[in-house]
Amino acid sequence: MVAIAKYIPHDKVPWVEQVASASCAVQAMQMAAVAQGFSGVWRTGSYAQDPIVKQAFDLSEQDEIVGFLYLGSSEVIPQPKPKRDSAEFFENWD
């Protein structure tokens, strides 16, 4: 799937929020697929910014490809990764 944030000028929904909500929708689709037993990979890369690719989807300058979502079945069931200490990611501010 190609996930696109199609810019629609709106007084209450700025461009950055439109891109963020499209990104949230991609994550939700991927998690829904995983919950049903599928595997998925969300990628962006250079094609997301390529003018030829954007032209193929008839996108404007403001429109954004937020990613390519690959879904399918996996022959290998990934093993859970060991849990890491949350102290590696969080810091208390006093």
How is this structure best described in words?
This is Nitroreductase domain-containing protein. It holds the Pfam family Nitroreductase. The structure is a single chain. This protein has 94 residues and is of the alpha+beta class. The protein has one domain (2-88): NADH Oxidase, CATH 3.40.109.10. It has two helices and three strands. It has a three-stranded antiparallel β-sheet, covered by helices on one side. The longest helix is centred in the first third of the chain and has 21 residues, at 15-35. It is extended, with a radius of gyration of 17 Å.
- Total strand count, please? 3
- Helix/strand order, N-terminal first: EHEHE
Low-confidence stretches: none
Distance between the termini: 44 Å
Strand order of the biggest β-sheet:
1-3-2
CATH-defined architecture: 3-Layer(aba) Sandwich
Global outline: extended
Largest sheet: 3 strands, antiparallel
Counted up, domains total 1
CATH class: Alpha Beta
Structural class: alpha+beta
Task: Calculate the mean pLDDT score and round it.
Answer: 93
* Count of DSSP-assigned helices: 2
Q: What name is given to the CATH topology?
A: NADH Oxidase
Please bin the fraction of helical residues.
Answer: 25-40%
CATH superfamily, please?
NADH Oxidase
Strand content: 15-25%
Radius of gyration: 17 Å
What descriptive keywords fit this protein?
94 residues; alpha+beta; 3-stranded antiparallel beta sheet; NADH Oxidase; 2 helices
In short:
This protein has two helices and three strands. It is an alpha+beta fold. The chain has a three-stranded antiparallel β-sheet, covered by helices on one side.
